[in-house]
Amino acid sequence: MKTFDLLEGLQSYQRVSDEMDVARFAAALLASLAAAYAAAGLYRLFYESRGTGSQVSRAFPLLALAITTLFICIQVSIPLSLGLLGSLSIIRFRTPIKEPEEVGFIMLVIAASIAAATFMFGFMAILFALALLSLLLTRRLRAMGFLRRAGMLVIHLPHPDGGATERLMAALDRHLRNSRVESSTARAGTTSLHVTFSGLRTTVLDLQTDLRQSVAPESINIFLDRPGGLH
User: Among 9, 17, 59, 146, whose Cα sits 20 to 30 Å from the Cα of 98?
Assistant: First the structure.
């Protein structure tokens, strides 16, 4: 069985090598390049204006070309493919991924590049159609309230009294759908409250302004689960 699989693999390599020419190679590169620009467009449309990522979309075209060429070379050369298994295992990417969406878009570019390298252009079209559908569905669910923004609020109050606490909770209710005080720490005449919340009804700036007017805090720190957005 192993011998048969090896012979079948050798025949497959030989077939790809015989069929590969400059025109097919160029077609694969152009398809992967188009897919990379499509992925970059989706990234900019759905996430760039609301995030503080590393602008990873700028690397999509070169990334797609490199991956496509790499997989085409693997298909037409057995020694090269075996050598790449060892050489690529020592590569480490140490640039931090600032937003989780960047991982998804990088994988989208990689999948499209592999589809282009294997001339599965129909699969590539289906991949991007479903990717666009999932992004639109995510946006719709967020608009309907299923994926509301969540985060944590840290506020420092000087000598709070009962009235200040009531005003604070009333201000939170005006801007947040759900909020809960996780911890309270008093030190040197200052009380620090840690509040988790979800469902930001207004903007972060409106929330900060209302809190300053309601309880006159020493400081306000708001941390969102998705940094970079003020609304």
Answer: 146
Task: Give the predicted TM-score (pTM) of the model.
Answer: 0.60
Q: Could you tell me the two tokens for 14?
A: 């030989």
Dist CA 149 CA 163 (whole Å): 29
For the segment 39-71, what is each residue's pLDDT rounded down to a tens digit? Answer: 999 998 887 655 555 678 888 999 999 889 888
d(CA 178, CA 141): 18
Tokens of 194: 């840690």
Architecture, CATH, for domain 150-224: 2-Layer Sandwich (3.30)
Residue ranges covered by each domain of the chain:
2-144, 150-224
Please, which residues have CB within 8 angstroms of residue 220's CB and are 6 or more apart in sequence? 153, 154, 155, 156, 208, 211, 212
Q: What is the DSSP letter of 119?
A: T
Q: How many CB atoms lie within 10 A of CB 111?
A: 18
